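Propose amino acids for all 174 sites.
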């Protein structure tokens, strides 16, 4: 395991990450099975299983600070923007596609600035976002791509499992 900062520890390949709230993958058989499904996955096990604390620690590990911006979807649970705001950074709201209710990559591109440090994509109703386009945008701007895959656990995107699509993927069992 390696420490990412802000109290998060990671194990595994650095190509993807997974935060699991309130579970221990070493002791929970269900979680172990999911870990096997997520290729190149990391487990980030916070000492406090609350989303706000996880978001704050995650933002610290990515060096998000006051004055920075993080692009989030306009339609999502409040915690997506709150974890950005609690770090003193500014959530910048990108539109969602009215047909899929997923983050619109064209809107994300229009929201990128010199202050942008990350994009948080939120999967919805079992559908992963358009990660090819989002990855292209974040790579062009040199920022992190974070996937909130709480609604797409077990799904795949173009044959790649959720958990292998972004720099960091967040999951929960709620």
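Proposal:
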């Amino acid at each position: 395991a390696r420490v990412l900062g802000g109290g998060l520890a990671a194990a595994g390949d650095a190509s993807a990450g997974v935060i699991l709230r309130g579970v221990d993958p070493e002791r929970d058989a269900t979680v172990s099975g999911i870990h096997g499904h997520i290729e190149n996955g990391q487990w980030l096990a916070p000492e406090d299983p609350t989303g706000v604390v996880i978001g704050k620690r995650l933002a610290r590990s990515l060096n998000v600070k006051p004055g920075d911006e993080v692009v989030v979807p306009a339609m999502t649970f409040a915690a997506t923007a709150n974890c950005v705001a609690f770090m003193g950074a500014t959530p910048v709201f990108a539109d969602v596609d009215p047909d899929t209710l997923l983050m619109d990559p064209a809107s994300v591109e229009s929201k990128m600035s010199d202050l942008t440090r990350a994009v948080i994509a939120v999967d919805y109703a079992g559908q992963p976002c358009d990660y090819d386009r989002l990855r292209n945008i974040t790579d062009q701007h040199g920022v992190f791509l974070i996937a909130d895959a709480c609604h797409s656990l077990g799904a795949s995107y173009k044959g790649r499992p959720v958990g292998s699509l972004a720099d960091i993927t967040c999951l929960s069992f709620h």
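The chain has five helices and eleven strands. The first strand starts at residue 2 and ends at 5.
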